[in-house]
Amino acid sequence: MAAYEFTVTVKTQYLEEQSDPARSHYVFAYAITIVNSGGVAAQLISRHWVITDGNNHVEEVRGLGVVGHQPFLQPGEQFEYTSGTAMKTPQGTMHGEYFCVAEDGEQFDVRIPEFVLSLPRTLH
């Protein structure tokens, strides 16, 4: 087990009631669970997202913390939050990283694996 390690899992959802396909406006929510899977307590300081829509238009988002928090996680603790994004296409991807600082001062990045934002498939 690495001393400095967070594990990130993502669940996505298309928000039909907030979307307007006629205006190329598609809204997605994503629920993130961050687990301190390492051996040292650490704090999530900032985030960096790369959002790519179906037209390969890329938007980068950087900021402090997540949803107004900079969670400090002991080994084994987790933090969950939900956020969202809007795109001009019905499908796209997101990936990024969190910048973290351990209680011993060590700095490390946590990779957020790429995930797909997509309308649910409908059967006719």
TrEMBL record:
One Pfam family, short name: DUF525
InterPro entries recorded: ApaG_domain (IPR007474), ApaG_sf (IPR036767), Uncharacterised_ApaG (IPR023065)
PANTHER family assigned: F-BOX ONLY PROTEIN 3 (PTHR14289), POLYMERASE DELTA-INTERACTING PROTEIN 2 (PTHR14289:SF16)
Domain ApaG: 1-124
Protein name, as recorded: Protein ApaG
Name of the gene this protein is made from: apaG
SUPFAM superfamilies in the record: ApaG-like
Entries under NCBIfam families matching the protein: PRK05461.1
Originating species: Herbaspirillum lusitanum
